[in-house]
Design goal:
Helix content is 66%, strand content 2%. The radius of gyration is 18 Å and the shape is globular. It starts with a helix and ends with a helix.
Length: 212
């Protein structure tokens, strides 16, 4: 039978693969079953420090992020700036866009910033061009290495995950009747962040396959 020390070793390796360091304090005191689920991204379920429904969402976040990072592994500046055609978005711009999406829904879900006023919010200013993509992003988002984009992705995601650890399932299910696409709850909003990443991951894979 696997020892707890062995499980912790595997858990550290898993977090290293996600660009994180060490085992979170809450996880160190987690049950063996929870630890086994934590270190295996393919096993969705309880996550230390999160309520049951939150754990499912965190499982999806982590699985999709790991999958997406594999798609950009080892990319250099030339690949990140590559444009498939004059109307395309670069891989670098899409990575920044994913960080912007995380920030957008963080501000809406956790700070009550409405989508209608979001683009005028000072906390969102550095993400505005990346959120819109298009011509401005083609001109402005280039010349950065992969670490630049990974830092944006990690910073925004960790901010979201910390806020989720401080809330419960009742909050997750709370309905916003005034959201632009119609009544929706926080769970749906944050699942959209995960789904959005899946969508762009497909685009990233296509673009990477066309880089000569």
């Amino acid at each position: 039978m696997m020892t707890l020390d062995r499980r912790n070793f595997l858990l550290k390796a898993s977090f290293s693969a996600l660009g994180l360091s060490g085992i979170p304090e809450a996880m160190a005191a987690a049950s063996p079953d929870t630890i086994l689920q934590e270190q295996n991204l393919n096993v969705f379920g309880p996550r230390a420090g999160y309520t049951p429904q939150m754990s499912s969402l965190i499982s999806m976040f982590d699985w999709m992020r790991f999958t997406m990072l594999r798609s950009v592994e080892g990319m250099g500046q030339k690949e990140l700036d590559f444009l498939l055609d004059e109307n395309a978005n670069s891989i670098g711009a899409m990575l920044f866009h994913l960080a912007a999406t995380d920030k957008l829904f963080y501000l809406n879900c956790f700070e009550g910033v409405t989508p209608q006023t979001l683009f005028n919010n000072e906390k969102f200013s550095e993400y505005r061009i990346a959120m819109e993509l298009g011509d401005n992003a083609r001109q402005e988002i280039k010349g950065y290495d992969l670490d630049f984009y990974l830092e944006k992705l990690e910073t925004t995601r960790e901010e979201t995950k910390k806020a989720l650890s401080e809330r419960d399932d009742e909050w997750l299910m709370a309905v916003d009747n005034d959201f632009p696409w119609g009544p929706t709850n926080n769970y749906c909003k944050l699942f959209h962040v995960c789904e959005h990443e899946s969508n762009h991951n497909g685009q990233i894979k296509l673009i990477r396959s066309r880089i000569s």
